[in-house]
Specification:
The chain contains 8 helices and 11 strands. By secondary structure, the protein is of the alpha+beta class. It has one domain. The chain has a 7-stranded mixed β-sheet.
């Protein structure tokens, strides 16, 4: 794995902000393909596979990638993108899980950063790249965010240092993420865990060493940092 030339700047900032991990969410059935290949792969690779319905990816989290970043895997810092996570669960139903990933992918050579949802006009106008300055922009004291519904000001009031100012800020990792770099996999409830166990029998012993456990209220508690008027 190659890192950015200024990785030390990233490492210092990550430690200063006490960032512990990156986050990715997906449907439980997608774990078959993820653990079967021992890595999380981007949309461009999933397209080549053809979304099989056995021993592979069962579906695609985002059928329409408006950000034109199909070679990247979308992650968030320290928390799921609640807006998108809630929306996907309501639209698609089924069992979902949240994967915690090693923070070192922040300073991988080709990782890029988006101040908000990478598909938004706002994020693309600000710029999406892998520079340290762009990474720091995720933690601005305030952001004037323009959307199709108008403009609003986001601030860091009540936010812990590890959280980006915008709930939908993204870290986009190119190519793949190894399962060995997963920290934990969280599920909504015991039923979702049983669903995963039934589907991934071959890899179950290996997965357990990464401590699969119910999500409970872990991420729900963090929602208090983003009131409705903030996002």
């Amino acid at each position: 794995m190659k890192y950015k030339a200024d990785k030390d700047s990233f490492i210092n900032e990550i430690e200063e902000r006490k960032i512990s991990y990156l986050v990715h969410f997906t449907k439980v059935e997608n774990l078959v393909g993820i653990f079967g290949r021992k890595k999380l792969i981007p949309r461009v690779e999933i397209d080549k596979i053809g979304h099989p319905t056995s021993k592979g990816y069962f579906g695609v989290r985002d059928n329409l990638r408006y950000d034109d970043k199909k070679e990247y895997i979308c992650l968030s810092i320290q928390h799921p993108n609640y807006y998108m996570f809630d929306r996907k669960q309501k639209e698609e139903g089924g069992d979902w899980c949240v994967i915690l990933i090693d923070k070192k992918y922040i300073y991988c050579e080709h990782t890029i950063f988006s101040i908000s949802n990478a598909a938004s006009n706002f994020a693309q106008q600000v710029g999406i790249d892998g520079s340290f300055n762009n990474f720091m922009s995720l933690f601005k004291d305030s952001i004037n965010k323009s959307t199709g519904y108008g403009s609003r000001r986001l601030t860091r009031e009540n936010l812990l240092p590890c959280y980006p100012t915008c709930m939908q800020a993204e870290v986009l990792v190119r190519d793949s993420i190894l399962c060995s770099d997963f920290i934990k996999v969280y599920f909504n409830d015991e039923q979702a865990i049983k669903h995963a166990e039934e589907m991934i029998k071959d890899e179950l012993a290996e997965i357990r060493k990464w401590d699969i456990s119910p999500i409970l209220a872990l991420f729900e508690l963090n929602k208090r940092f983003w009131s409705e008027q903030r996002e």
